Amino acid sequence: MTNTTLKLLAQQLQLSISTVSRALKDHPDISASTKAKVNALAQSMDYEPNAYAIQLRTQNSKILGVIVPAISNLFYDSFIAAIEEESRKNGYALMILQSSHNPENELNNLKIFRQNRVSGVFACLSSSAENIEVYQKMNDRDIPVVFFDIVPKDNKFTKVRMADERCAIMAAENIIKRNAKKVLAIFGDENLSITQKRKAAFQKFMQDFAPKIHCSYTNAASTKEAEEVMKKNTHKTQKIDTVFCMTDEILIGVMRTIQELELKIPTDIGVISISNGFIPNLYYPRISYVETSGHELGKLAFVQMMANMKGGKTLTELTVEAKFIAGGSM
To answer: Are residues 107 and 80 part of one domain?
Structure first.
């Protein structure tokens, strides 16, 4: 089947190619009757503009790149859904790539974005990312970068994230309200800025407002590690009575151990997490959690991207507030 081209439309209508092109673009120099004829034929022949040719001419692909550590992560899933919704409304498409927390993958992803002349990039850093300057080169090429969730410390970039410190403090507040005596606080990958911020805020709040509560602090970079940490701590003579999970992945590992040991929630042990909300509602009783909305973060990130693309290039750090959702686990 022959692709419909401007030349073919022009031959059918006995018009010049430039006239057909301007008619399809609703140019004011073309009469309404000619526009109607051209558009009717274009529709009947399934004409589609050559996106690659337009991209070369305008230097705008109308494609936005998204880098996430893992597409399967429910938080990033809801973030991507929000970005896709806003992109579609504004005439953009998404190219989504994952880094798997591998810096080499991250660099290759950026190369793919450059080759495809993306209009902008949403980036969540991998846990061991070192070369942040490569993102500055994207900005220098007029490809704005908006960092989200796991963001660099450097203030010369646009960043949107959850109110990480407040998330941790809200969790600590509810642990204190439970009258906990022995707490296990499991945080994520210790190399991530998001982990460092949440851990520092949690520790300081507990030390300032509940110094008598015994808290053990540890890290788990995966569900498997969280499961192992939980097993290690629940087999001690002085068993913990409350566990804090910084992520959904950690919560899943913790709950596996709790179910395996047939511990009763909340009588034997209390559980609280920071979550996007899906995983805590899979258990009975439902797990209490501090909600971090990937959807709201996606909406905010898109607003910042549009501002940067319009020339604003606001170098700022914005946060999305969290809220506590009570379940039956505390």
So the answer is: yes
Residue 237 carries which DSSP code?
S
Mean pLDDT of the chain: 88
> Do 190 and 153 share a domain, yes or no?
no
Q: Give, for 249, the enclosing helix (H) or strand (E).
A: helix 248-260
Domain containing 123 equals: 61-162+295-321
Q: Is residue 1 part of a domain?
A: no
What CA–CA distances, in Å, run from 309 to 45, 101, 143, 144?
Answer: 35, 27, 8, 7
- Rounded Cα gap, residues 321 and 129, in angstroms: 26
What are the residues whose beta carbons fall under 8 Å from the beta carbon of 222, sequence distance 6 or more?
249, 253
Instruction: Quote the tokens at residue 8.
Output: 């073919």
Q: For residue 223, list its beta bridge partners.
A: none
Confidence of residue 1 (pLDDT cuts 50, 70, 90): very low
Confidence (pTM): 0.76
Asked if the model's pLDDT at residue 58 lies above 50, the reply is: no
pLDDT at 271: 98
Residue 120 contacts residue 308 (beta carbons within 8 Å): yes
- Tell me: cis bond preceding 144? Omega within 30 of 0 counts: no
**How far is the C-alpha of 17 from the C-alpha of 63, rounded, in Å?**
27
- Comparing 123 with 8, which gets the higher pLDDT? 123
What's the pLDDT tens digit per position in 174-227? 999 999 999 999 999 998 888 999 999 999 999 999 999 999 999 999 999 999
Query: Residue 85, class by beta-carbon neighbours within 10 Å (0-12 exposed, 13-18 middle, 19+ buried)?
Result: middle
What distance in Å separates the CA atoms of residue 273 and residue 253, rounded to the nearest whole number?
A: 12
In the chain, the N- to C-terminal Cα span, in Å, equals: 65
Mean pLDDT (whole number) for 256-267: 94
- The per-residue DSSP string of 184-203 comes to EEEES-TTSHHHHHHHHHHH
